[in-house]
Amino acid sequence: MGKETHSNQFDEILADLLNHGLADEEQRGKLERLCAESPENARKLAEELEFSELIRQALLTHDFAEFEGDVRHRMSDADAESDPDFDELKHRLRTGTARQPDLNGLARIVAEDDERAAELRRDLHFDDLFEQAAVPSRAEEPFVESLATRMWAQTEEDHFVQDIARQLKLVGKTEDEAPENVV
Fold first, then answer.
1. What distance in Å separates the CA atoms of residue 110 and residue 103, rounded to the nearest whole number?
2. Contacts of 182 (CB under 8 A, 6+ apart)
3. How many whole angstroms separate alpha carbon 165 and alpha carbon 153?
4. What is the mean pLDDT of the chain?
5. Cα 106 to Cα 100: distance, rounded to the nearest angstrom
6. pLDDT digits (tens, 9 = 90+) for 107-127
7. Mean pLDDT for the stretch of residues 40-56
8. Residue 99 carries which DSSP code?
9. C-alpha distances in Å from residue 180, one per residue of 159, 161, 164, 169, 177
10. C-alpha to C-alpha distance for 142 and 148, rounded to whole angstroms
11. I want to staple 92 with a disulfide (CB 3.0 to 4.6 A). Which of 34, 45, 98, 150 is the partner?
12. What integer pLDDT is reported at residue 165 of this predicted model?
């Protein structure tokens, strides 16, 4: 079996595990074999399971500050040297407390250091994923519903957009000039 086929098979089994669990003994055996054959597969499986657990914990906890601290601890590398200024600026950005000088300093740091720029992008991406998991209005279903509503509103069968445009044109006209019922 080719390397690409192994990769595709691994990705399919991993998706099944994350979406439905693996009740099938044969599938669990294949996943174990694919991880034993490829350290990259084993690393990817560990990362996906850890991320899945973080999402599960986010949905269970009501103390998001505590959860954020736990996530920071799990994602930080204790052996890596970090610049406290960068970490502090990044924290302020992520918590919405950054002021313009903070943003300027952070922009200067990431412009000079590609690794820190990648770290900031990764952290902001995770923040967005956690928010999507924790905030019902950012879930998949409301997005699909709002997209369908917007698409429907742009069809010729819907007069909502034209009615609003007509109402906007009437703003500022006197009562005698405007019709009583626009909609």
1. 11
2. 163, 166, 167, 170
3. 13
4. 75
5. 10
6. 999 999 999 999 999 888 888
7. 80
8. -
9. 18, 19, 15, 14, 9
10. 10
11. 98
12. 78
- Residue type (1 letter), 130: F
Closest among 169, 165, 144 to 152, alpha carbons compared: 144
Residues in the chain: 183
Half-sphere exposure of 154 (CA within 13 A, CB side): 6
Look up residue 77 and give its amino acid: D
**Phi and psi for 24 in degrees, rounded to 5?**
-80, 120
**Cα–Cα distance between 23 and 38 in angstroms, integer?**
23
pLDDT at residue 53, as a whole number: 75
DSSP string, 108-153: HHHHH-HHHHHHHHHHHHHHHHHHHHH-GGGSHHHHHHHHHHHHHH
Distance of CA 67 to the CA centre of its chain: 16
DSSP sequence for 27-92: HHHHHHHHHHH-HHHHHHHHHHHHHHHHHHHHHH-S-HHHHHHHHHHHHS-TTS---HHHHHHHHH
- Which tokens sit at 78? 């204790």
166 to each of 150, 154, 163, 172, how far by Cα in Å? 19, 16, 5, 12
Nearest to 118 by CA among 86, 148, 155: 86
